[in-house]
Design goal:
Elements lengths: L1 H16 L2 H36 L11 H23 L4 H6 L2 H6 L4 H34 L8 H25 L3 H18 L16 H6 L8 H24 L3
Helix pairs in contact: 1-6, 2-3, 2-6, 3-6, 3-7, 6-7, 6-10, 7-8, 7-10
Length: about 260
Amino acid sequence: MKSLLAFMKKEWLEQLRSGRVIILTVLFVLFGIMNPALAKLTPKLFELMADTLEESGMIVTTVTVDAMTSWTQFFKNIPIALIVFILLESSIFTKEYQSGTLVLALTKGLERYKVVLSKTAVLAILWSAGYFLCFAITYGYNAYFWDNSIAHNLLFSVSCWWLLGLFAVMLTVLFSVTANANTGVLVGTGGVFLTAYLMTLLPKIKEFSPARLMSTASLLTGAEEASSCYKAVAVTAILCVTCIAVSIPIHNKKRI
C-alpha cells in the first residue's frame, strides 16, 4: 500500500511539474463561469444584433433566459473539456514507454499492477475534481441569478456525464498501455466513442450504449425519466471496471 501511495504522489508531482493541473483547473473554472455568463449575456447580445437582424427581415422578440439555459450550456461545454483532458493525458503511459522511466521504479520492486492503479487513480481524481469544480461554480451562479429547481433530474444528469468522462479516462489507460504512441490512444478512445454513438441509432440496443448518457436535454426538461438511462449507467460502470481489469495483464506483459 505504501508503494502504491508513493507512486501516486510521484504521478501527482509530475502532473504539477508539467503544468497539466494548472491548465485543467483554469479550463474547468473558465467553463464553470462561462455557462451562466453566456446565458446572462444572451438577451443583451440579441439587443445589440436587433437592428442588423431587422434589416435582414428577421423580427427579434424578447429573449428570456433562466437556469435551464445555463445548464444547457454546461452540457455543451463539458464534451470540449473532456476532449482537452484526454488530449493532455493521453501520454500517461506512452511517454513512460518511450523514455524508459518506468524501468527504475520496477527494478526497485514496484509491482506492475500498482503502476496501472496509481496512474488510473490520479487521472480519475483529476477528472472528478475538475468536473465537479465546474459544476459547483455553475450551480452557485445559477442559484444566485435564477432557480436551479427548474432543471429536472439535474444531479442524475451531472452524474451521468461524470461517469461517461470516467469511462473515457479508463479507455485512455487501456489504450495507453496497449499503444506505443499518443495517436493510438486517441484513435482507440475516439473509435470506442464513435461506436457507442452509432449504437444509439439502433433502437434495440441504444439503451445499453454509454453514449446514451449524453442525452441530458430530455432529462433536464423532464421529457424522460432517469430510469431510461439505468441500463446505460450499468453497462458503462461495468466497462470501466473491465478496462482496468484488462489493462493490468496487458501492462504486465508489456516489454519496457
